[in-house]
Specification:
48% of the residues lie in helices and 15% in strands. The chain has nine helices and seven strands; from the N terminus they run βαβαβαβαβααβαααβ. Helix 1 crosses helix 9, helix 3 packs parallel to helix 4 and helix 4 runs parallel beside helix 6. It binds NADP nicotinamide-adenine-dinucleotide phosphate (NAP). The site of NADP nicotinamide-adenine-dinucleotide phosphate has 30 residues, from helix 1, helix 4 and helix 7.
Length: 246
């Protein structure tokens, strides 16, 4: 895969799946913006990855804040003069059964997981359209396809990402921009570490490949979709779930 000279933005890239995706790009010589609500983590991850000889910058970004998204994307344009790849990875959970779910838990999950994807995508597309090239990958979830008790807000946000992905793919195909999604299953990160052991065990039984995914399992699929070689694939979802949903 030839990424020579390219620039990628990874939202929520400070840790977890985002950090692994950024690591995969760094190994392949892609220059990086690590954009995370936790600015210390963004800067630390960027400085760690820049040791591999690429240019990597950590920036504070709350993807749900429209003014901040505009400001950060214009700073990225000034700093790098191009945006080739956008990975919309930032996401949160605020779980609870529907009947007890607080409005603010619904709103914050939709604001970060779904509106945040729209806001970043809109900014990136402005630059990509002019240059007639772009790769956008949105991180959805198996919960979008199977549903998950306690995750009404989360599964709705992740299903929304799929519709958004397909619409953006159709709107910008003529500009050389592909827009795809990955839908991870159960991946070992801080987000899933907090689940009780019995819930994890029940989950494991649903996975034909018999193990939880690693952050690299997700990153490998994302890197492929982000590569120039995936240019005839758009509006698709790659499921990275060990066969949990097929
Ligand atoms: P994670 O370890 O919690 O990492 C998420 C990162 O996003 C964190 O660095 C977090 O910062 C950051 N973030 C949170 N809110 C943000 C905002 N408003 N703006 C910018 N950054 C923000 O989660 P993960 O497990 O790596 O998940 C990454 C993505 O994969 C998410 O979209 C998640 O929904 C999706 N996913 C994960 C799994 C799984 O099993 N882990 C499965 C399916 C899909 P803080 O640390 O400060 O919160």
């Amino acid at each position: 895969m030839d990424f020579k000279g390219q620039v990628a933005i990874v939202t929520g890239g400070g840790r977890g799946i985002g950090r692994a995706i950024a690591g995969g790009f760094a190994k392949r010589g892609v220059n990086l913006v690590i954009a995370d609500i936790d600015s210390d983590m963004a800067v630390k991850t960027a400085s760690y990855l820049s040791a591999s000889g690429i240019k990597a910058v950590g920036m504070k970004l709350d993807v749900s804040n429209p003014e901040e998204v505009k400001k950060v994307f214009s700073e990225i344009k000034m700093e790098f003069n191009r945006i080739d790849i956008l990975i919309n990875n930032a996401g949160i959970t605020r779980d609870g059964l529907m009947i007890r779910m607080k409005d603010e838990d619904w709103d914050s999950v939709i604001a970060i997981n779904l509106k945040g994807v729209f806001l970043c995508l809109r900014e990136a597309i402005k630059d990509m359209s002019q240059r007639r090239y772009g790769r956008i990958i949105n991180v959805s979830s198996v919960a979008a396809f199977m549903g998950n008790p306690g995750q009404a807000n989360y599964s709705a946000s992740k299903a929304g990402i799929v519709g958004l992905t397909k619409t953006a793919a159709k709107e910008y195909a003529s500009r050389g921009i592909t827009v795809n999604a990955v839908a991870p299953g159960f991946i070992k990160t801080a987000m899933t570490d907090v689940l009780p052991e019995n819930v994890k065990e029940e989950m494991r039984k649903l996975i034909p490949l018999g193990r939880f995914g690693t952050v690299e399992d997700v990153s490998n699929a994302v890197i492929f979709l982000a590569s120039p070689e995936s240019g005839y694939i758009t509006g698709q979802v790659i499921h990275v779930n060990g066969g949990m949903y097929m």
